[in-house]
Design goal:
Ubiquitin-like (UB roll); 13 helices; 16-stranded antiparallel β-sheet; alpha+beta
Length: 772
């Protein structure tokens, strides 16, 4: 409102009352004048500059009613004020404002289903957060948003009540009192119209169900529209992959009980007839490469219609067009249906459209990992021709980093540029590190402290960092390892290792012998192809045997040959080929590693080599068969025996489960009174593993929780022992794999199938790390 200066005029009380009553009427007209000064009154927290920046008037401007109305609209548009009015004092314009209160804090009472941070973010998205202006309409909007969040978790009966408590400086504390209630669970799923398949068979295709013993983890009995839509697509895919070309879902009804605690789902379908493919024909422009495209056809004449093979064929065609830069190629599979014979012929109509190049590549979802860590894995470059093979390779390389649970690539057209596309790489990060801290007390070693940190993506840089410290009297360790995967811009990696280890037997004797191993190493990895890397490096190592009570004869003989303190300078050479589809949850592909150490300098001369091979076979969408083989061999050089401290060890996690760690191989009983066996390992080893991996019962298709059955076989062999498959220890068992917030966890329970007297059995074992 605009008022003349009435504060400098003496008026009767009746006139004052009349003036106040007219506040609700349109603004009084004011004769235009030149503004000499502008003042702002009523501000408490907001800076005056915010007001001045929004006013369409400046000192020296000509004031008019229209400009005054525009000024009021501009200030209201800020959303910061409950009331705004303009007053004039001669040629001075006075802006009088009343600020809206701001939100001092947001609290939740009765919150159980959600973490507080999730709801705080949801409220921020609707405009309500600490420090923001507050009004009742915004609180109502926030209530509706919180209810929507609860509905997404099937808590349809949740009640939300907001309370605003005024505090100092024109602020309010906002409290949301929530009564969550129980979730609405699915009590019934009915499918109407099915004839070819039973209800049970069709319901097996759903992730939603009526509850089971794992529902507390999967929440599969909680209704959500998005989940139902996904299940309907799974049902449609089930029929379309079995010849039912004209299958359709007629309707879906979802009914809720009056107490909002139980839901019933009814799905009405029409199956139609089953069709057989009678032929496939190509039409359109195939770049004069029709024979090459024909080799990509997955549909088989004489077999029942399968929508999956049709989709695979069209995708293979578009991907092949993309190899030549045609990002917008369109391939349509048109059915020609003969309903009298229930046969269908497909015409594959292709239009390569126009060739395109990639304008820009964007990365999203990497809140911690730096852009460059992802971008340096790209083989598709910006401003280069679109290449489908390079894009898929880029996606696989990013996934194989092991930093993400999911990696997706989306092609986005550029408006106004028909020959350009943008690529959007979206990643979902996972925890890549672990920290351990412990302390122990015993009469033998008083206080022992241990600390360890392992980070595969340190500070989002893509570098590997591991530190291990243990102050125990019996096992004292100091280990530092770091890897820079892009030490040079062309992808040469550098690994630096520094270690100092001291170990003593648990003999209860302060004069017992001890083993000290110290050294450092430097290794480089050179990428040869997209999946092959060659490693080379050098290590400097020193081993000391301090004599004492219980020293085994094997260690004594080693000291006699090489000295109580011996050194070695081994050169390392290795090769690795990783063609797995994922480093975290592989389902197909292979991994191979070869490593060799040769020491030609120092007190110890030897050669050692190892080879590991892993292969994953996808039996179906749910089931995977995996094999692993790990062999090792070592030999002394220049007439020397193979050094004891380079032996291989077998047994326990990572080799043959069901037996104690590192106990499958030659051993020696010390000459101490406690007769503690010392397991020496050997210069030769054989390890074989097989796993059948399946989703955990009741967990649907969730890949973060999986069950596996396994069979392991292996052993380490001494220098004078002959490698014999008959001497291998064999075990079998079941295990649980869980991609937890702290990393991959594996639990296994194994039963030895082939064992010998004296073997150390350990049936239940636990592991943090990858498979095998």
């Amino acid at each position: 409102m605009i008022f003349p200066d009435i504060r400098t005029t003496i008026v009767p009380s009746a006139l004052k009352v009349l003036a106040c009553a007219m506040l609700s009427l349109p603004a009084w007209a004011v004769n235009p004048f030149t503004v000499r000064d502008i003042r702002v009154e009523g501000l408490q927290r907001i800076e005056p500059g915010t007001v001045f920046a929004s006013l369409p008037l400046r000192v020296g401007d000509q004031y008019s009613d229209d400009k005054g109305a525009a000024a009021i609209r501009a200030l209201f548009a800020l959303g910061l004020f409950k009331d705004v009015r303009l007053e004039t004092q001669g040629d001075v314009l006075v802006v009088v404002v009343e600020e809206r209160p701001s939100v001092a804090s947001v609290e939740f009472i009765g919150l159980k289903e959600f973490d507080k941070d999730v709801l705080v973010k949801a409220l921020k998205d609707v405009g309500l957060s600490e420090g923001r202006p507050y009004d009742k309409s915004l609180a109502d909007k926030a209530e509706q948003e919180l209810k929507r969040q609860y509905i997404s978790r099937s808590l349809y009966g949740a009640q939300v009540l907001s309370t605003a408590t005024p505090v100092d400086r024109n602020r309010v504390n906002l409290t949301f009192t929530i009564t969550e209630g129980g979730p609405a669970k699915i009590g019934q799923i009915d499918i109407v119209g099915n004839k070819a398949f039973t209800d049970e068979t069709l319901r097996d295709q759903f992730n939603l169900d009526t509850g089971g013993w794992m529902s507390w983890y999967t929440k599969s009995d909680r209704y959500a529209r998005t989940k139902l839509n996904a299940d309907l697509e799974a049902l449609r895919s089930f029929y379309l992959s079995r010849g039912f070309l004209e299958f359709r879902i007629d309707s879906t009804q979802v009914a809720m009980s009056p107490n909002k605690q139980e839901m019933a789902i009814t799905i009405n379908i029409t199956e139609g007839e089953r069709f057989v493919i009678s032929g496939v024909r190509l039409e359109g422009n195939y770049l004069d490469r029709a024979d090459e495209f024909k080799a990509l056809i997955k549909m088989q004449v004489g077999k029942p219609y399968n929508a999956e093979t049709v989709a695979e064929t069209t995708k293979a065609f578009t991907d092949y067009f993309g190899k030549f830069g045609f990002a917008f190629a369109r391939v349509e599979a048109k059915p020609e249906i003969d309903r009298q014979s229930n046969r269908v012929q497909f015409v594959l109509q292709a239009d390569p459209s126009r060739r395109a190049y990639v304008r820009r590549i964007q990365v999203a979802g990497n809140n911690r990992t730096r852009d460059e860590v992802i971008r340096r894995e790209f083989r598709q470059l910006e401003a280069a021709w679109y290449d489908g093979d390079k894009i898929r390779l880029s996606r696989d390389r990013v996934d194989r980093l092991g930093y993400f649970t999911d990696v997706n690539v989306e092609t986005v057209e550029v408006p106004g540029a028909p020959d350009q596309v943008d690529l959007l790489f979206t990643v979902a990060e996972k925890p890549t590190g672990s920290i351990s801290l412990g302390a122990g007390f015993s009469s033998a070693e008083k206080v022992a402290l241990s600390f360890g940190i392992r980070q595969e993506n340190a500070f989002g840089s893509g570098n590997y960092l591991a530190v291990e410290v243990n102050t125990s009297k019996f096992n004292r360790n100091l280990v530092l390892s770091t890897t820079d995967p892009y030490f040079t811009q062309n992808g040469i990696s550098r690994t630096v290792d520094v270690f100092h280890r001291t170990s003593r037997p648990y003999l209860g004797d302060v004069n017992a012998y001890s083993l000290i191993n110290s050294g450092a190493g430097l290794r480089f990895g050179v990428p040869v192809t997209e999946s092959d890397t060659v490693f080379m490096g050098i290590n400097a190592e020193q081993t000391e045997i301090r004599e004492g009570t219980g020293l085994p004869d094997a260690y004594r003989k080693y000291a006699e040959k090489f000295g109580s303190t011996s050194s070695a300078l081994p050169f390392t050479l290795g090769w690795a080929r990783d063609q797995r589809d994922s480093a975290l949850v592989p389902t197909k592909g292979a991994l191979q590693r070869i490593n060799a150490d040769v020491s030609l300098a120092g007190d110890v001369r030897y050669a050692r080599a190892s080879y590991q091979f892993q292969q994953y076979f996808p039996l179906s969408k749910k089931y995977t068969l995996a094999f692993n083989a790990d062999v090792g061999w070592g030999q002394g050089l220049n007439g020397q025996d193979y050094p004891l401290f380079k032996h291989f060890y077998v047994g326990g996690l990572g080799s043959v489960r069901g037996f104690e760690q590192s106990t499958l191989g030659p051993s020696e009983v010390t000459n101490s009174t406690s007769a503690v066996p010392v397991y020496l390992g050997g210069p030769k080893k054989l390890v074989f593993n097989a796993e059948f991996i399946t989703p955990f019962p009741g967990a649907g298709n969730d890949k973060t929780l999986r069950l596996f059955g396994f069979t392991d076989a292996g052993r380490a062999f001494g220098q004078d022992e002959t490698v014999s498959f008959g001497d291998l220890r064999v075990s079998a068992g079941v295990g649980l794999s869980w991609i937890s917030p702290m990393g991959p966890l594996r639990f296994s329970y194994a039963t030895p199938i082939r064992k010998q007297t004296g073997d150390k059995i350990q049936r239940l074992q636990f592991q943090i790390g990858t498979s095998f």
